[in-house]
Amino acid sequence: MTSNLLLSLQITALGMGLVFGAIILLSVMMSLLTRFTADKETASDSAEAGPVTITPIPSSSVIGEHRAHAAAVAVVMALAELKQSQAFSEPQTALVSAWQLGMRTRQLYQKGLPLARKTQKAGQE
Length: 125
Hints:
about 120 residues, mainly alpha, flat, 4 helices
């Protein structure tokens, strides 16, 4: 009895250790990948960029033109998005899904009710 308990605890500890070891290994690998593949900016690159220039603030008439252009661009983008969303709209769903139809058919079959009514032609009985 105690040997089974000890064996089960050892298997549990081994499994948990493997899981946590794999998680730690993945996190170390991700940090190494980000460290080696990230774009690094060196001090010489920032010195070559040159001095920072400050642009003056435009007058109010220029700001109004920029706002008008921004509004026009926003309207064009909204219309394009609306047109694209209408082009890829989802098809209309059926009133009863296939799953519901199957379940209802099975229930009717279990109750012994006819699934479809047969029409009788004139003269046949």
